[in-house]
Each structure stands twice: as C-alpha cells, then as structure tokens.
Amino acid sequence: MRRFFAVGHRASTDPGFPLDDLAGSAGRMDILLNAANAALLLAHGIRRDSEIGLLLLGPPAPPRFVRLVGFRLKSYQPDIRSNASLIRQTLVDASRVEHEFSPGVYGSIATFPEALDRLGPTFVALREGGKDIRQAALPSDATFVLSDNQELAADEEGGLRDRGALAVGVGPVALHTDHAIAIVHNELDRRGA
Ligand SMILES: C[S@@+](CC[C@H](N)C(=O)[O-])C[C@H]1O[C@@H](n2cnc3c(N)ncnc32)[C@H](O)[C@@H]1O
C-alpha cells in the first residue's frame, strides 16, 4: 500500500464551504484535492494500491481528518469540484470514530499525531533538501507526509521526528504538493517495474 498524508493548515472544516472558491475562502482546499488526484489517479483509472489522508485545520471546527482509499473508491473523477463535495459530506457529522461516508471516503475528528498513528507505520517527510529520493532506501509500507503552501509547524515537525521519519527530497526546487506526489509515485513505479 502507498500512503500519503497532506496537511491543509487553513483548509475549511465548514460542511458548506464554497465549491466555487476552493482556492480562496475554502482555505486552499484546491491544494488538498489536487494532492488527492495525484495520489489516487492514473490516466485511465484509480491506483487501487494507494490512499491519502487529508488533515483540515481551518475554521470553524478543526481538526478533521479525511481518508480516501483507492481500492474502495467508486466513480472518483479528476474534477476537483465534484471531489470537494465528497469532502463536504464528511464534515457534516463529526465523530472521533472514523465513518465511511461514501465508498472509499472516510471522515473523523483527529489531530495531527492521531492522524499519523492511523496511517503509519513508518514515515517519510517530503521536503526540499532531504535525502535525494533517487538514492534513498525508502522504508517499506511508508506514509509520505507533505504540507500545503505553508511549512509544517514546529509541533508537527516534532511529531514526525518522534516517529523517526526519514526526510526525503524529490529534486532541487520547491514544487507543488501534487507534483511532489507524482514524483514519488513515479519513483516507486520504476522501482517496482
Ligand atoms: C509548496 S511546497 C511548501 C512550501 C514551500 N516551502 C514554499 O516555499 O512555498 C508543498 C509541499 O510539497 C513538498 N515538496 C515541495 N517541493 C519538494 C521537494 N523539492 N522535495 C520534496 N518535497 C517537496 C513538501 O512536502 C512541501 O511541504
């Protein structure tokens, strides 16, 4: 299983967040939705061996954790506006117990460390300046952790350090979150081929 985890520091937790303003008043929800597409989609289908966890930390009711699981998803399309509706459904009834709101789409209340512990079991922190992925021995069954357009907060970095995360870079320049995920998939696809 390939696992990704993306943190949306301002991503809205309002079940009525606007579908027409994902990059604005929805708190850069577009970054998380594009990351989900990169994690889950192939040109002609879904990566059934991949899942992504999205942590929504924006107002009014953070933290919310949404998990999209490739092998369970039905009718998942590249259109991020439609996929935003899937996220909105998970925000309606908050519970610490994870609930499947539609096939492959799970929602719950979970903090950053709780979300890490639901993913795991080993972690790779994707960041510029980390060990070059082309030379890195990647732990098996790792969760790849990314941020949005903000750096991870100090306590989030600490949580990763405590779990022995390996810092890995995918190249010499800062990329968008979804592009970094695409490079990780490509590296793993090549190693598996
Ligand atoms: C837009 S970047 C984060 C903000 C960035 N530091 C900036 O200057 O705006 C989004 C995320 O993609 C990942 N990322 C971007 N470039 C990367 C690289 N060269 N190597 C590894 N991960 C990268 C990191 O996880 C990062 O948190």
Q: What is the element layout, followed by pairings?
A:
Blueprint lengths: L1 E7 L20 H12 E2 L2 E2 L3 E7 L7 E6 L10 H11 L8 E4 L2 E4 L3 H7 L3 E11 L9 E5 L7 H9 L3 E4 L7 H16 L1
Parallel strand pairs: 1-4, 1-9, 8-9, 8-10
Antiparallel strand pairs: 2-3, 4-5, 5-7, 6-7
Helix pairs in contact: 1-5
The protein binds S-adenosylmethionine.
S-adenosylmethionine (SAM) binds next to β8 and α5.
Our count of helices gives 5
CATH class: Alpha Beta
Uncertain spans: none
Using the coordinates shown, work out and report the CATH topology.
Alpha/beta knot
Overall description:
- With 193 residues, the chain is α/β, with parallel strands linked by helices.
- The chain has one domain: Alpha/beta knot, CATH 3.40.1280.10.
- The chain is 28% helix and 27% strand.
- Strands 6-7-5-4-1-9-8-10 form an 8-stranded mixed sheet, sandwiched between helices. It has a two-stranded antiparallel ribbon with strand order 2-3.
- A hairpin with a 2-residue loop joins strand 2 and strand 3.
- Helix 1 packs parallel to helix 5 (177-192).
- The longest helix has 16 residues, at 177-192.
- The two termini are 16 Å apart.
- It binds S-adenosylmethionine (SAM).
- S-adenosylmethionine is lined by residues 126-128, 130, 146-147, 149, 151, 169-171, 173-177, 180.
Brief digest:
It is built from five helices and ten strands, in the order E-H-E-E-E-E-H-E-E-H-E-E-H-E-H. The chain has 193 residues and is an alpha/beta fold.
